[in-house]
Design a protein that fits this description.
mainly beta; Immunoglobulin-like; 2 domains; 14-stranded mixed beta sheet; 6-stranded mixed beta sheet; 3 helices; 36% strand; elongated
């Protein structure tokens, strides 16, 4: 057989071709991918809704999208978000002066299965924003059954009227939810902006807080002797609303005034006369009377807490009913800057048949105790109450009757009535 002389040449050619095709190119430096700075990352985490972060490689032209939501969702994606309303400040229709800054807080309970964490926020939805931010991020993790308090800084509009803004909680994915029963209910802030001094133009409490009481001027002051002979039939105001505890007491009283004093006479039906013998700040734990007076009714008509112009004065008949009882005197609890025992002219006597069993008290109270000097025509916030103790040798307040049916405690002047300084 004749050998072919082309085979070695062919093999050489093939090997050359293969070796030439397998030569690797020179190394290329990798393209650096710059990630966002930590500050930018935190900013992205709080975006609502989240915007994917896009990174572009300059070497290949490929685009990679990174969505940070997976890194900030604190619970499983199939959990539920639901809130329960617990409490709030700034009740609906609170009166606020134009341009006043105030803080609204809502206390909510997490009754869903999701943990509210980073990326969640309280978001303004619609209505009147009143200078609030669009959203307020959570500052703590709130697991199921935990309670969280939101605070939002607001500013009352410059024009008078009723304003209301609606809010919901927003998830990191931009989904909004509210309070029970199904999460569709908003929470809100609702205020009334008034252009008048104080919160309302009127300067007297509504009649449902008790019939307004008139103190009539006098140029012939009554004697403080417990006899009531110079009061005639002028004890025209009833004290019959039981506002605390249990008591069968009833009472009637009257008021007169001149430029120096307020004069009080009260007649109490009470079958058990018990005094708190230490007197002073504890005198209310025995049979006694109390005057609540708001000396700037028009200026703070809608204040629901006592302040420096609101007074709480207690007066005890004390040893004048029975010298063995002790505890005679008067004490001012509010304002706290003036609290302490007060020196008043007081007279008290026991009553028997044919009058109902009980006691009479008269007192002359200097206007200086209340820091005012009426001239006539003024209206003050006012409630008159009688404390009852039916347990001898025990210091306790069994019950209270008052001129105001709404009075549940002294600290809310909006539940008091009105005192008219009449001529």
């Amino acid at each position: 057989m004749k050998k072919s002389t082309r085979s070695p040449i062919l093999v050489v050619c093939i090997l050359s071709t293969c070796l030439g095709g397998c030569v690797l190119p020179a190394p290329v430096s990798p393209t650096r991918v710059l990630f966002p700075t930590p500050n930018l990352t935190i900013t992205a985490l709080f975006q609502n809704p989240l915007t994917p972060t896009t990174l572009r490689s300059t070497g290949s032209g490929a685009t990679v999208s990174l969505t940070p939501s997976a890194t900030i969702t604190p619970t499983a994606p199939d959990c539920t978000n639901l809130a329960q309303f617990v409490a709030e400040t700034i009740p609906d229709s609170t009166y606020i002066a134009p341009g006043t800054t105030f803080i609204k807080t809502w206390t909510l309970k997490n009754i869903g299965t999701c943990t509210w964490g980073r990326g969640y926020a309280l978001a303004f939805d619609h209505g009147d924003q009143m200078g609030a931010p669009a959203s307020v991020p959570f500052t703590a993790s709130v697991p199921p059954n935990a309670i969280y308090v939101f605070s939002v800084n607001l500013t009352a509009p410059a024009e008078g009227g009723v304003y209301q803004g609606f809010w919901k909680i927003q998830t990191p994915q931009g989904v909004r939810f509210g309070v029970e029963p199904n999460g569709s209910k908003f929470i809100w802030v609702k205020i009334t902006v008034t252009l008048t001094p104080g919160c309302l133009p009127q300067d007297r409490r509504p009649d449902e807080n008790g019939t307004p009481v008139a103190a009539y001027s006098t140029t012939n002051p009554p004697k403080i002797d417990g006899a009531l002979s110079d009061w005639g039939n002028s004890l025209g105001y009833s004290v019959s609303n039981v506002v605390y505890g249990t008591t069968e007491n009833t009472a009637r009283f009257g008021l007169r005034w001149d430029s120096t004093y307020l004069y009080l006479a009260v007649k109490v039906a009470d079958n058990h006369i018990v005094q708190e013998t230490s007197g002073g700040a504890n005198l209310y734990k025995g049979d006694s009377v109390e005057i609540l007076l708001d000396t700037d009714l028009k200026g703070d008509y809608c204040d629901s807490t006592m302040n420096a112009d609101d007074y709480q004065l207690g007066i005890s008949p004390g040893y004048m009913l029975d010298p063995t009882l002790g505890g005679q005197g008067a004490y001012l609890w509010y304002p706290t800057s003036h609290k302490g025992a007060k020196t008043l002219l007081i007279a008290a006597v026991l009553t028997t048949s044919p009058d109902p069993a009980g006691w009479i008290l008269e007192s002359r109270i200097p206007w200086s105790v209340f820091g005012i000097t009426p001239v006539g025509g003024e209206n003050y916030g006012f409630a008159f109450s009688v404390s009852d103790n039916d347990h001898p040798a025990t210091a306790q307040q069994d019950g209270v009757i008052s001129t105001s049916p709404k009075r549940s405690g002294p600290l809310n002047p909006m539940n008091w009535g009105t005192l008219q300084i009449s001529y």
